[in-house]
Design brief:
This protein is α/β, with parallel strands linked by helices. The protein is 42% helix and 14% strand. The chain is globular.
């Protein structure tokens, strides 16, 4: 099996390529010239085998056939079994022109290339945004149902999926990921969405977040100082040493590195910095401090599986996570959730640090599956 991938340096794409490496075959990756260094860093992290099997192709979403040369097209023709198109804008705040160029024209050019090289299957990564503001269940076999498309993001996700469906001459598949979130405010995002759209969210899973508020730790200025992120700008080797000597030192593995390191990037000066800038981090923190948590929780009508992660002596958390302010905030959060949520499912996990999916991925996956089963039971012997 041979593969062609667009968007391989993105959040989803980098994980896809790693899975494809497990399968064997050659992987051709479209990359902008300005992102070549980023791809090369990923290839180094994927291991020595990746260097011989991941083949960068300089191209451009805005150009016909993605800007791939005639010579490269001739070499690819008849030799690509699966064409994965992930490159797009995944930002609902992006302007209309940026959405149109990346999502609509990018998909048009990807389909054109897939048709030209006679790819085995064209895999188009769409979005649940293609469903727009459709009221009710939007099934996989539904597409153009007259749904309102309120923003350029919704409109271009719908139009790009239409192109994949109508203009692809090779076999095709469409995938519609829902919201992919991370970081400490993910639970707050999920609960706010459930509160704002009660008819569209069947269940939520909030792990160590959403029910608590930083405002419970102390005065605002003190909380902002305490939760300031470090202003990192260090050589990659020093960065690895710093992480390896911190609270996770005893548990740091290659799997942790795979999950954490993509949140950082090398600048032109060769120094590692967080992709989330200091100013944006503080803007998110201010939003959490200003949020009316009680109003949000009181408006959530679906089941809410809520986990309070509590440290134990000798565990991974540093001393600041054990102090009275945090303990008080966690206790207040549990009391608040029990009092305000319509259908609370409260859990306390001892021995966990805040980023639980890094420590106990199987436990987290099991919890998500339990939440799914409660609202959409599987037939006996079935699987999700």
């Amino acid at each position: 099996m041979n593969y062609f991938v667009t968007g391989a340096t993105g959040f989803i794409g980098r994980h896809l390529v790693e899975r494809l490496l497990d399968r064997g075959g050659e992987i051709h990756v479209l990359v902008r010239e300005g992102s070549l260094g980023r791809l090369e860093n990923l290839i180094d992290r994927w291991g020595p085998e990746a260097a011989g099997r991941v083949h960068p192709l300089i191209g451009d979403l805005t150009k016909p056939r993605l800007g791939v040369s005639d010579e490269e097209i001739a070499a690819l023709t008849g030799n690509v079994d699966h064409f994965f198109h992930l490159a797009a804008v995944y930002d609902m705040t992006a302007d209309e022109e940026s959405n149109r160029i990346a999502n609509v024209e990018g998909t048009r050019h990807a389909v054109e290339l897939a048709n030209t090289i006679d790819a085995g299957i064209f895999h188009h990564t769409s979005s649940i945004a293609a469903a727009g503001q459709y009221k009710g269940m939007f099934r996989e076999d539904m597409f153009d149902e007259g749904q309102p498309l309120p923003t350029p993001y919704h409109q271009t996700k719908f139009e790009s999926e239409r192109i994949a469906r109508s203009r692809t001459t090779v076999p095709w598949r469409v995938y519609r990921p829902a919201v992919v979130v991370g970081h400490s405010w993910g639970a707050s995002v999920a609960l706010a969405t459930a509160a704002a759209a009660p008819g569209r969210v069947l269940s939520t899973v909030a792990i160590d977040g959403g029910i608590t508020t930083p405002a419970g730790i102390g005065p605002r200025d003190e909380v902002r100082r305490r939760l300031e992120p470090p202003r990192l700008a260090v050589p990659p080797a020093d960065f690895a040493t710093m992480i390896g000597s911190g609270p996770l030192a005893g548990a740091w593995t290659p799997a942790h590195a795979e999950a954490v390191l993509p949140a950082f990037a090398l600048g032109e000066d060769g120094l590692a910095r967080a992709r989330l800038t200091f100013d944006l981090h503080m803007k998110v923190l201010d939003g959490l401090l200003d949020a009316d948590v009680e109003a949000v929780l009181g408006a959530v009508t679906c089941p809410c599986w809520t986990v309070s992660c509590e440290p134990v002596e000798g565990g991974l958390a540093d001393a600041s996570y054990h102090d009275e302010a945090w303990a008080r905030a966690r206790a207040q959060g549990l009391e608040r959730a029990a009092r305000l949520l319509a259908r609370p499912r409260l859990l306390r996990w001892g021995g966990a640090v805040h980023d639980v999916p890094l420590q106990w991925p199987s436990l987290v996956a099991g919890l998500v599956l339990a939440a799914y089963d409660e609202v959409s039971p599987r037939p006996s012997g079935g699987s999700a």
